[in-house]
Predict the 3D structure of the following.
Amino acid sequence: MQYSWRITKYNPSNRDRNGRYLIEEWTSVSDIGNVYQGRELTIHDYLKTEEQYVSAIEMIMKDLQIQQLQVTNLERHDLNFHFDKHRSIYTAEMVALFHNLLEGDIVSGENLRNLCKLILREKLWCKLTSDQKMFVHFGFDYYMYIGCSVNCSDTIKEIIGKGLFAELLKSPYLDDEE
């Protein structure tokens, strides 16, 4: 892909010259209830940030006129929905998607939204692609990488305006085919 961004909740001005983030912030759904910078991470705050990530993907898809993405490199990480301390944030549709999703599946709409949430919640991991038009990769610690075949600079500005940060950066999860 010609254009690639790291899109996160992390302000780049809080990085040292080697790119290391200098402020302790939450990095996972499992951090709900913990205190960061004097403030407890609530389920509401977590879900608000998660929604920003999912919306960013949808905004770029809309800009590129993409309706669906394909699942590749699928991994299942956590089967214990019943024992998750935040199980109330999982819908029956999310649990069904977790169990039924297959390598190569095409996802769109609510299934795509739920898939992204399951990835951000560390239940699944995969890459999402659309031919040579777009990819979405998720990294550790709530990092997301989006690549496009065209410059979506206006959409990136819109994403930034909604509270996330975008840095021109190549995804560390790229394969030779991407």
Notes: The chain has a mean pLDDT of 94. The radius of gyration is 16 Å.
